[in-house]
Request: fold
Amino acid sequence: MKMKLLEDNIVWENFVFSHAPRSLFQSWFWGEVQKKLGATVWRMGFYDNDTLIGIAQIIKVIARRGTFLHVRHGPIFIQQKKKYWQEKECVNDKIFCMKGTSEEMTYVPESQLKKQKGKMLVVTKGKEGVEAYYKGKNYEFRPRHVIRSKYAIGAGDTFFANFVSRFVKTGDFSGSIEHAMDKTSELLESLKFNLDFA
Reply:
């Protein structure tokens, strides 16, 4: 597998719409918005021979606790194959925080998950809460309020945005997870009310 800059917006958008049509944050348009806001954006294509098999829109984020690369809702591959992770070990070693659902974590090789547990790994489990690892220590969090709603649009983004924001400000890992869970519950309650009674 080879990785190189992909600068053709038509190829990019066709790939996103074919393989992850709900992934706003990997769309060409979102990258353009980020550029207008002053962010540095790289759009990488992953190739098997000359066939495009994946993309990743990478946004450079400068925060008080340091600079990091954010690949929100990505990378996107034609098929999620664990071998793609293994072929780019040098990139994987630079990932500090990895967040995903239990299902998403099944696409990540055990060797990578083991490494992430020594840094920061956050696994969201819906109404079951969150399992997290920070600097090798395991944490389990249960939501204070379980909201039963068939609408969960934006829950994962709400959780991660609130977690990162609080963690960058305070450095308090547990407090940041709990804050993010509370904010996600608030979102789900508002979605339930607004969509059920609209």
